[in-house]
Amino acid sequence: MKRRYFLAFIGSIALIWLLSPGINLFSATIATAQTQTILVSAAASLKDALEEIKPRFEKAHAKIKVNYNFGASGALQQQIAQGALADVFVSAATKQMDALAKAGWIDTSTSRNLLTNRLVLIVPKNSTLKISDFRSLTNSNVKRIAVGEPRSVPVGQYSEEVLKNLGILEQIRPKLVFANSVRNVLAAVETGNADAGIVYITDAKISDQVKVVATAANNLHSSIIYPIAVIKASKNPQAAKTFAQYLTRTAAKNIFEKFGFAIAR
């Protein structure tokens, strides 16, 4: 009997401790349960802009935390198609988004065109080579040209279109050095491992080690469009939709434009 009273007494003490305002155990548990973390798979060229947007979004939406997975759009597409976790996808081309939508991976009701970009030719800042336009890449003193791998890296696809439409692709093909993301193209030129490279204007703007020598005319390549959508298998679809919608608001648009992006119409 004494043992039963003792256990009841201990139970009462424990209950009082758990309910104590100073402990806030249940409050902490509830708060944790309400906080959702989303993973955004985004094109490498968006890294700087999205990193700047993140703290502003999380301040405005305290219960949503954002993690990023940056890479070539083609590689991200394959990851999602193979079942890798992701809540939002932002591609640097419609090709990858369309493929995922066709395969049923995308919540098409959330899909929209978010941004546009421009394609530029860059050289190392201290370059002494006479490279003034894309046709200059045929010069004999230009030995290595960094471009994205066209099958998986959208900037490589656009670059190939420009070179083909200018009629110089086959002539300079032996000089091409392929990279698995636009940031690796940029790095190759920054370090002098390539005499020139083709990147987005937004990538050129973040580096003080390269200079832009030419901008590709829009009629030389497909429209550079960045679509965004929520992944159908998202574990936190409402939080994902909230983030996707935030990227269309003025605060986010201002940051994108600061980094050289244009807003898709």
From TrEMBL:
Keyword Membrane belongs to the record: no
InterPro entries referenced in this protein's UniProt entry, alphabetically: ModA (IPR005950), ModA/WtpA (IPR050682), YvgL-like_PBP2 (IPR041879)
Signal peptide: none
A Pfam entry, by short name: SBP_bac_11
Coiled-coil residues: none
Record GO biological process: molybdate ion transport
One GO molecular-function entry: metal ion binding
Residues that coordinate or bind molybdate: S45, S73, V182, Y200
Statement: the UniProt record of this protein carries the keyword Thylakoid: no
Keywords per UniProt: Metal-binding, Molybdenum, Signal
PANTHER family for the chain: MOLYBDATE-BINDING PERIPLASMIC PROTEIN (PTHR30632), SULFATE-BINDING PROTEIN (PTHR30632:SF0)
Family classification: Belongs to the bacterial solute-binding protein ModA family.
The name this protein goes by in its record: Molybdate ABC transporter substrate-binding protein
Species for this entry: Microcystis aeruginosa FD4
